[in-house]
Structure formats: structure tokens, C-alpha cells
């Protein structure tokens, strides 16, 4: 593709102002904004190592200019080795929105478009620094198994925050992963934090069970409109087998994991076939709304290490907790530690699903553990398909719980304050 033909839609897509843009703009002027990776020798016919080196040259060119690198679409994915550093100020941009069932070649079981084919089992594919963007790209691991848990390749993370410099002001948008083990690793450390990280419209199914993990992010990470599903590669080569999905559940990891984080914003999140939906660590607070955690062992696990601001507002969501090794480990929600959780319009139900091994029930709706004082408010929650007599299992005598306008498994009104639990021995 000529970069001139690509420029106007590219600028519109990436947010460049096109006012005053004329068709007779010089190629030299245009090239100051963006270049195709092919101009630097990244080609489908190269070795992975050669493409890695050439893509790094492209990034090094863009770094001092704050320029964009265009992943030009192709009918043969670009073979890539890992170890790439997306240096500060650089945008790496492809043509796609999230393609949750996969693009597909007309004659081959492979994706097409802006696609990197990754086989490197030793190195993180791409490490990101400050003020960077990755958008509209597919990441394909062609050697990953579809049906045999014993053959799962434990690839390093596809995208990782810089461990040396941290990563602040990063946008990851419209990314699709096929065969990844860990998709996006933003576990930082106190001396090299991550901040203002935006994940949006990202699709995949990590075989570690970990899609996005964040640690040490004190300036509002945003996880928006993300979809994790073993059928995300259906149009390419089918979905994962029941045995592989069961093995993901058995790893006892969470699709979304957050710790040491202030005011996290989590909106429109989906996962299927994982041990856990989201882990809200002890040193976190924020909001979670519009979610569906389907075929999980634990939907939400919330902790807290102080009583001042370890508070989560959770609303408008559905949890289907129905899978695990034993029924007594299946809980829609677990709350422990200190702080507060507000639940509004959160429903839970269970049942069979042929995609994985299920027990078809949960033990309860809410498990409250520990021994420190914490508070929970439940409003308009519909709770079904648990085996316990009461939807709330409380082993923490210091927990204060109030339910208003909720319904139990018999579709009877369940309203109670803390006195209810003391009077009834819960």
C-alpha cells in the first residue's frame, strides 16, 4: 500500500488533525508523521530476528520525533522475535478494531492484516516505555496448542511495562491476541511505577488465565471494554478444547488483577473459562461496573489493608460461578481484610456449559472471611443456584453487612442488617 493512500484515514483514526491537508502535500512532509514498517525492512519473508531488528530501527527513528509506525496489512503475518522496546513517544498502529473471532486468510488457517506471528519462548515480545501507543494489531502464536494441556507453551508476556523505567501515559487499544500465555503485564515496582495506563477493546484468551495485571499504578488505570473468551480465534482454527480450558481454570489465576492502585476504573469487562474474574488487591480502591464473569470459580475477590479508602463500588454485573475442583471453593464473591464494598444490581446464577467441566452450582453468593472489621452493602442483588442455606457465608464476626431489596435462591426477598447475622448465627 502507498503510504500516501493510507494517510488520510490513518490521521483520522489516530487523532491527527486533517484540517488543511491537501493531496499535493509532499511525501517528505508526510513522512515526518508516519512510516510503514516495510520502509525499514520488516517483511513477511524475513526471519523473525531480522524483523525484530528492523522494527527496532523503525521505533528508534520515531522516538525523537514522536512519530507513528504503521503496521502495513499483509496476507502473510510478519514473523517476529521478542525483545522489542517500544521507546517513549512512539505509536505502533495497525488497521484493526478488535477482531474477536479472528481475521482469516481465504485459503489458510491464519490471520491476515496487521499481524505479528510470535514464536519466541524466551523473551517478552514488546516492552513499552512512557507516552506510547499500540493500536489495531493482532498478536498470533502459531505454535500454541489448541487441544492438549500438556503442550501449552508458557510464552513470556506479549506486552510488558518497562521494569527499569516504568510506563506512564500508555494506550493499548483494539488489540487481539491468539495463543498468548500472558497478554499484558503491567506489574511494576515502587521505584519504577506505571500510571495513566489505558486498556480498551482488547480481546484474547491467555492460557495462564492472566489477561491484564497491574501493580503500583497510583494515577488511575482504566480497563475498558475488554473481552476474554476461548472462542476468540474461532474463525482461524476453531476454539480451545475442554481440556485446555479446564487447565486454565486449574491455574487459579485471575483474568484481571489489580494491586497497589488508586481509583482504578473498570468498565464493561468480560471473561469466560477462568478461575477468577477480577482480583482487587489489599492496596486498591476503585469502581467496577457493567461486567460479566462467566464460568468462573470466583467472580470477584476483594481485599483491603486499611479502613480509610480500601473501598470498591461494584455495580451492574453478572457472575456465573460454576466451575472448579470442589463445590466449596466456588463463590461468586469473596471479601476479606478491611474497607468497604458496595454491590448494586449484581446478579449471580450457575448452570452447565459444555465448553468446560462444571459443577453447575456455587457454594454461596458471598463469602466473607478474616477477622478485621469491614463493611458491605448489597442493593438489588439477585442470587441463585447456590447450595448453602444462606446466600452469605460469614466467618468474620466483625463484618458489618446490610442487604436491601435482594432476592435469594427461592426468589424470596432477602433483606437484612447486621442484627440478622448475629440473631441467626451467621
Characterise this structure:
The chain has 426 residues and is mostly beta strands. It folds into 2 domains: 240 residues, Pectate Lyase C-like; 161 residues. Helices cover 12% and strands 41% of the residues. It contains 6 helices and 28 strands. The strands form 2 sheets. It has a 24-stranded mixed sheet that branches. It has a 4-stranded parallel sheet with strand order 3-6-9-12. β27 and β28 form a beta hairpin. The longest helix has 15 residues. The radius of gyration is 23 Å and the shape is globular. The C terminus is likely disordered.
Brief sketch in words of this structure:
This protein is mainly β and 426 residues long. 12% of the residues lie in helices and 41% in strands.
Mean pLDDT score: 93
The N- to C-terminal Cα distance equals 67 Å
Integer tally of domains: 2
Uncertain stretches: 11-30, 418-426
Silhouette: globular
The level 1 CATH classification of the largest domain is Mainly Beta
Strand content: 35-45%
Count of strand segments: 28
The radius of gyration computed from the alpha-carbon positions, rounded to a whole number of angstroms, is: 23 Å
Structural class: mainly beta
| Major beta sheet summary | 24 strands, mixed
Find the CATH topology of the largest domain: Pectate Lyase C-like
What would CATH call the architecture of the largest domain? 3 Solenoid
Number of helices: 6
Binned, the helix content reads 10-25%
Amino acid at each position: 500500500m502507498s503510504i500516501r493512500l493510507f494517510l488520510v484515514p490513518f490521521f483520522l483514526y489516530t487523532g491527527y488533525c486533517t484540517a488543511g491537508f491537501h493531496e499535493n502535500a509532499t511525501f517528505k512532509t508526510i513522512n515526518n508523521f508516519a512510516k510503514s514498517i516495510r520502509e525499514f525492512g520488516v517483511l513477511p519473508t524475513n526471519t523473525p530476528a531480522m524483523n525484530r531488528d528492523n522494527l527496532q530501527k523503525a521505533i528508534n527513528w520515531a522516538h525523537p520525533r514522536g512519530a507513528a509506525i504503521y503496521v502495513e496489512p499483509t496476507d502473510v503475518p510478519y514473523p517476529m522475535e521478542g525483545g522489542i522496546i517500544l521507546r517513549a513517544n512512539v505509536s505502533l498502529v495497525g488497521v484493526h478494531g478488535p477482531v474477536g473471532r479472528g481475521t482469516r486468510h481465504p485459503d489458510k488457517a491464519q490471520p491476515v492484516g496487521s499481524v505479528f506471528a510470535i514464536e519466541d519462548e524466551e523473551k517478552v515480545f514488546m516492552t513499552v516505555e512512557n507516552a506510547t501507543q499500540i493500536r489495531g494489531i493482532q498478536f498470533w502464536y502459531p505454535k500454541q496448542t489448541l487441544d492438549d494441556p500438556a503442550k501449552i507453551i508458557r510464552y513470556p508476556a506479549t506486552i510488558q511495562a518497562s521494569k527499569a523505567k516504568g510506563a506512564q501515559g500508555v494506550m493499548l487499544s483494539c488489540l487481539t491476541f491468539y495463543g498468548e500465555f500472558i497478554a499484558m503485564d503491567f506489574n511494576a515496582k515502587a521505584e519504577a511505577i506505571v500510571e495513566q495506563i489505558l486498556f480498551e477493546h482488547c480481546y484474547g484468551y491467555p492460557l495462564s488465565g492472566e489477561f491484564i495485571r497491574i501493580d503500583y499504578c497510583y494515577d488511575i488505570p482504566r480497563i475498558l471494554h475488554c473481552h476474554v473468551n476461548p472462542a476468540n480465534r474461532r474463525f482461524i482454527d476453531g476454539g480451545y478444547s475442554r481440556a485446555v480450558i479446564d487447565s486454565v481454570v486449574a491455574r487459579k489465576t485471575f483474568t484481571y488483577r489489580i494491586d497497589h492502585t488508586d481509583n482504578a476504573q473498570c468498565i464493561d469487562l468480560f471473561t469466560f473459562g477462568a478461575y477468577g474474574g477480577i482480583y482487587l488487591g489489599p492496596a486498591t480502591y476503585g469502581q467496577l461496573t457493567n461486567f460479566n464473569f462467566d464460568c468462573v470459580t470466583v467472580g470477584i475477590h476483594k481485599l483491603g489493608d486499611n479502613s480509610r479508602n480500601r473501598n470498591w463500588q461494584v455495580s451492574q454485573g453478572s457472575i456465573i460461578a460454576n466451575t472448579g475442583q470442589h463445590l466449596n471453593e466456588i463463590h461468586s464473591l469473596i471479601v476479606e481484610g478491611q474497607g468497604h464494598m458496595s454491590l448494586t444490581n449484581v446478579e449471580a446464577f450457575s448452570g452447565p456449559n459444555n465448553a468446560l467441566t462444571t459443577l453447575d452450582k456455587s457454594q454461596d453468593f458471598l463469602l466473607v472471611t478474616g477477622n478485621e472489621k469491614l463493611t458491605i452493602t448489597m442493593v438489588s442483588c439477585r442470587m441463585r443456584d447456590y447450595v448453602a442455606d444462606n446466600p452469605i457465608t460469614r466467618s468474620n464476626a466483625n463484618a458489618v453487612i446490610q442487604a436491601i431489596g435482594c432476592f435469594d435462591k427461592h426468589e424470596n426477598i432477602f433483606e437484612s442488617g447486621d442484627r440478622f447475622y448475629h440473631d441467626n448465627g451467621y
